[in-house]
Design brief:
The complex is a heterodimer of chains A (116) and B (113). Chain A is an all-beta fold and 116 residues long. Helix content of chain A is 0%, strand content 51%. The termini of chain A are far apart. Classes of the chains: A mainly beta (116), B mainly beta (113).
Chain lengths: 116, 113
């Protein structure tokens, strides 16, 4: 079974600085997808960024980028120029389409606080 | 684009009562997922439908939980009888075929007293 581990329950960063959230996963599959979701206090789940395992190039979305290390099964999220609105829970998630199920397997989350 | 719609947003009920949570996926999406979020277990999949057919229900905790998708635009998750340990936020998500992003609804916060 696939597992996703986020080793940092809580983190904080000063506004305008850079922060990196860690995520590791365990799978025996070769083709899969990885995601970072943001959950603000409103509890809405918002997709931040996604990465296809077959792509070597790290995904980037504006201030958000990932460091995808397939061999190490690591998928960290870097937030540059942190803003107060980035304060939220961040969940790393794994998805495979093998075996017919497209479910997301989530980590336990990292609570990020951006301080003014 | 209305997004995934869930109702009710909040539900407070007493132990032993039947609870029904509702979800309307985004039009044209053929896959629908029910997730549960608790402090102890985090976010976990309960059941997943593809073209209205249940594909993976391995996450349904016990027989008290049941889910249906009678048509492409509506799904229900029922708990009967409810117990305090069922208190959680229940999310519905949908996605179109061939697309890997799941779009989440706002969730239903269930409290069982």
């Amino acid at each position: 079974a696939q597992t996703v581990t986020q080793s940092q329950p809580e983190m904080s960063v000063q506004e305008a600085e850079t922060v990196t959230l860690s995520c590791t996963y365990d799978t025996s599959e070769n083709n899969y997808y990885l995601f970072w979701y943001k959950q603000p206090p409103s509890r809405q789940m918002i997709l931040v960024i996604r990465q296809e395992a077959y792509k070597q190039q790290n995904a980037t979305e504006n201030r958000f980028s990932v460091n995808f290390q397939k061999a190490a099964k690591s998928f960290s999220l870097k937030i540059s120029d942190s803003q107060l609105g980035d304060t939220a829970m961040y969940f790393c998630a794994f998805m495979t389409t093998q075996g017919g199920s497209e479910k997301l397997v989530f980590g336990k989350g990292t609570k990020l606080t951006v301080n003014p | 684009d209305a997004g995934v719609i869930q109702s009710p947003r909040h539900e407070v009920t007493e132990m032993g009562q039947e609870v029904t949570l509702r979800c309307k996926p985004i039009s044209g999406h053929n896959s629908l997922f029910w997730y549960r979020q608790t402090m102890m277990r985090g976010l976990e999949l309960l059941i997943y439908f593809n073209n209205n057919v249940p594909i993976d229900d391995s996450g349904m905790p016990e027989d008290r939980f049941s889910a249906k998708m009678p048509n492409a635009s509506f799904s229900t998750l029922k708990i009967q009888p409810s117990e305090p340990r069922d208190s959680a936020v229940y999310f519905c998500a949908s996605k179109p075929v061939g697309y890997n992003e799941q779009f989440f609804g706002p969730g239903t916060r269930l409290t069982v007293l």
